[in-house]
Design brief:
The protein is an alpha/beta fold. The chain has a domain of 299 residues: P-loop containing nucleotide triphosphate hydrolases (Rossmann fold, 3-Layer(aba) Sandwich). It is built from eleven helices and ten strands. It binds guanosine-5'-diphosphate and magnesium ion. Keywords: Coiled coil, GTP-binding, Nucleotide-binding. This is Septin. Pfam families: Septin. One of its GO terms (molecular function) is GTP binding.
Length: 451
């Protein structure tokens, strides 16, 4: 379900971009600018540096370079900056209350009967949030019925399917346009994984789900309802949860420490993970102010009081400091990984499709050929068989004739030899008769006829 609700918020200061914008005019910003100027002047005097870059300072009142940050802010705001937060955790852990508290608003929630769902249901709503003329298009994605079923080993599937589906939608958009900023972005930029404050370490369902999710989106574990446990219990719970996360190789989102401007605060926040938060939709008057709080017989827990819980730190980390980084990481890390795998898969699917299409065409052609030339084909085959039989017969006859001829040739040769011998004998006899008539008178016998 997608609904569009326009919310004009009291000041939450959620855009890091406004932070850039205000930096140039704030007093601490002015000090920083002075320091940067001195640094630049020093570099300009350095002969080696001066060889490469010459620093020029346009005369006052300036030429407009300083408006670059505002140009960037304007473009981002005009392009409809979208930010999508997923809330995951068992029914009743405090997902809806936390998102309301984070944005100081009241979002749609009809999850009263989510514990009766037969499977996990992912419900997404869209809202337009406006703060000091900066608007964002916020997606609130709540996973209902999580941990409510008897069979839980596949509880993560609808969640993973939803995340993949949004990546697919973005991929489709991206393939259609050349301008990345114009793509409608419904990808999950951060998943707040709410963990019960009581228990030892993480439950099996938490581990299985986190393992499935950490490579798909920026996963931030959060201990909900931290007002229900003592400070010591909270420290123990944090330690055990982090040990389970590390032992199971789950790479949760870490706030970046490569940007010097926010490195210190991010490093401090990383050390406090998982944040233990309190949330509420109730308001209590404390002193002169009305604050979001939980009222107990023994006292009041203020949601935005830094000494009561990590709630303010969580909000600052998500909105004021790292919102852009969460979006960038979603794009450069999780989406890129998904995209390359998906494109490979698409390539294989296309090749398989082409291959089966070729097979189909081939079998169609064979069938058509058979229908058209089937009878002729059989006739040709019969003729071929007959020819083969005839050629075998002729071959046999040829061999028999050849043998017969050979025999006749041998007999003829023998007759010739015999004849020659007789001729010789007669010749000798004739000569003998001549001699007998004239000299010896011996009686010569003729040789026997040799067969
Ligand atoms: N003690 C305590 N109760 C909370 C906190 N946050 C929410 N709750 C309560 O827990 C109940 C369930 O909260 P809800 O936000 O509807 O949970 P969801 O089902 O996860 O969306 C409500 O009665 C809330 O008032 C908290 O930080 N501390
Ligand atoms: Mg809810």
């Amino acid at each position: 379900m997608i609904s569009h609700i326009y919310l004009r918020l009291p000041r939450v200061s959620f855009l890091v971009l406004t932070h850039i914008y205000t930096n140039t005019s704030s007093s601490s910003g002015a000090e920083e600018t002075d320091a940067k100027q001195t640094d630049t002047e020093e570099k300009a005097e350095d002969p080696v540096y001066a060889d490469i870059v010459r620093v020029l300072r346009p005369a006052d009142p300036g030429v407009g370079i300083e408006w670059l940050a505002q140009q960037y802010v304007r473009r981002v705001v005009a392009d409809h900056y979208s930010f999508n937060v997923m809330l995951l955790g068992q029914t009743g852990v405090g997902k809806s209350t936390l998102i309301d508290s984070l944005f100081r608003a009241h979002f749609l929630d009809d999850s009263t009967r989510s514990h009766r769902l037969s499977r996990v249901e992912v419900v997404a709503n869209r809202y337009e949030l406006c703060e000091n003329d900066v608007r964002i298009d916020l997606g609130v994605i709540e996973c209902r019925g999580f941990d409510d079923q008897l069979t839980k080993d596949k509880s993560y599937e609808p969640i993973v399917d939803y995340i993949n589906k949004q990546m697919d939608i973005y991929l489709e958009e991206e393939l259609k346009t050349t301008h990345r900023d114009k793509c409608k972005d419904t990808r999950v930029h951060v998943c707040l994984y709410l963990i019960s404050p009581v228990g030892h370490g993480l439950k099996a369902i938490d581990l299985v789900t986190m393992k499935e999710l950490y490579a798909k989106c920026n996963l931030i574990p959060v201990i909900a309802k931290s007002d229900l446990i003592t400070e010591q219990e909270m420290h123990d719970r944090k330690r055990k949860i982090m040990a389970d996360i590390e032992d199971n190789g789950i790479a949760i989102y870490r706030f970046p420490i490569d940007d010097l401007e926010v490195a210190a605060i991010n490093a401090k926040s990383n050390a406090k993970l998982p944040f233990a938060v309190v949330a509420s939709n109730d308001f209590v008057t404390v002193g002169q102010r009305e604050v979001r709080a939980r009222q107990y017989p023994w006292g009041t827990v203020e949601v935005e009081n830094e000494s009561h819980s990590d709630f303010t730190r969580l909000r600052d980390m998500l909105l004021r400091v790292n919102m852009n980084h969460l979006k960038e990481t979603t794009h450069s890390q999780h989406y890129e990984l998904y995209r390359s795998e998906r494109l490979d898969q698409l390539l294989i699917e296309t090749q398989t499709k082409h291959y089966s299409e070729l097979n189909r065409i081939e079998s169609e052609l064979v069938a058509k050929y058979k229908a058209k030339f089937g009878a002729k084909d059989q006739e040709l085959k019969n003729m071929e068989r007959e020819l083969h039989l005839k050629s075998e017969k002729w071959k046999k006859m040829f061999i028999e004739n050849r043998d017969q001829l050979e025999l006749s040739r041998q007999e003829l040769e023998e007759s010739i030899i015999n004849l020659n011998m007789r001729k010789q004998w007669f010749k000798v006899k004739m000569e003998g008769n001549v001699d007998k008539d004239g000299k010896d008178g011996k009686n010569h016998k003729s040789p026997k006829h040799k067969k």
